[in-house]
Amino acid sequence: GEALEVTREVNCVTDFIHGCEDQLQKLKKQKEKGLLYGIPVSIKDHINCKGHISSGGMVKFLGQVMEEDSVIVQVLKSQGAIPFVKTNIPQTMINYDCSNLIFGQTLNPLNHEKSPGGSSGGEGALIAGGGSILGIGSDVAGSIRLPSSFCGLCGLKPTGNRISPPACGDRTFVLAVTGMLGPMARDVDSLALCMKALLCEEMFRLDPTVPPLPFDEEVRLRGNPMLPIAQKQS
């Protein structure tokens, strides 16, 4: 409901992912609850979801319905999260705005005369507008960091090859910098929880090219300037 209201205002959602209610009922029957149990998660347009398109903002890909979930969506589901919407991007994603000829222009919910940034602009707008509490964007040269900044959010571009890529068909750009999927949210703790959930045995099993290194909570806390000095030294 909240996501629908926000997208009516700023045009940030491109698709609602079907089967959410079924997935929730399935989760309730599982004995082990994942780290993201019951959390609705929004995902950027180009991340594959079974039964949905990954347009990249380009008309030529509108007919290609994906046959399976990308690894990150499978891992989110295994951790109890519920991917529920796909969000807007600029055409080809190589842009710091958020507009394409299919879905139109996404606005910044804090100021409708401004851009939400890009390329994960739909994510930035939806989370800042209150329609999602956790989202997955992607970043080569600022595509998570720019919308996070423009929309007053927190975002993380992980180290290259830390998370399995989106697997969006033949849309491969040859880039000097590794593009990475990463979390966007309103606070750093949410980013940390998401990374901890993603860097799990299921991720390493589904994609053997990802180094099997779990999230290191101690390293994160050592780098936290908000912790008392005594706690840092202990």
TrEMBL record:
Signal peptide interval: none
Annotated GO MF terms: amidase activity; fatty acid amide hydrolase activity
PROSITE patterns per the UniProt record, alphabetical: AMIDASES
Coiled-coil residues: none
Domain Amidase: 6-216
Entry-linked InterPro entries: Amidase_CS (IPR020556), Amidase_dom (IPR023631), AS_sf (IPR036928), Endocannabinoid_amidase (IPR052096)
UniProt keyword annotations, A-Z: Hydrolase
Keyword Hydrolase among UniProt keywords: yes
Gene Ontology BP annotations: fatty acid catabolic process
Family as reported in the entry's similarity comment: Belongs to the amidase family.
Protein name as annotated: VDHAP protein
Species: Nycticryphes semicollaris
